[in-house]
Amino acid sequence: MPTKHIEAELWQQVEAKTIETIIQSKVMIKETDILQEIIRKGLQHISIEELKQYALQKKKGVHNDKL
């Protein structure tokens, strides 16, 4: 698996989702499995237009978490 930097705040959210999933399902699951599912769902729901706007904002130095 490629190594990529994930912001600490985002990783904390992944950890929280993982713990919540384990508690509610009573099934052990790895954080990486949860992260992969979050990425899959995100890829299904984000448009190229949203990513384009994100890229343009990032280029200008503006970071908006709400696409």
Give the biggest beta sheet.
none
The number of distinct β-strands equals 0
Instruction: Determine the N-to-C terminus distance.
Output: 27 Å
The gross shape turns out to be elongated
Helix content, binned percent: 55-70%
Question: How would you characterize this protein structure?
Answer:
- With 67 residues, the protein is mostly helical.
- Helices cover 69% and strands 0% of the residues.
- The chain is built from 3 helices and no strands.
- It has helices at 8-25, 31-45, 48-60.
- The longest helix is centred in the first third of the chain and has 18 residues, at 8-25.
- The protein is elongated, with a radius of gyration of 15 Å.
- The model has no long low-confidence stretch (mean pLDDT 91).
Key structural traits:
67 residues
Short description:
By secondary structure, this protein is an all-alpha fold. Helix content is 69%, strand content 0%.
Summarize the helices and strands and which ones pair or pack.
Elements: H1 8-25, H2 31-45, H3 48-60
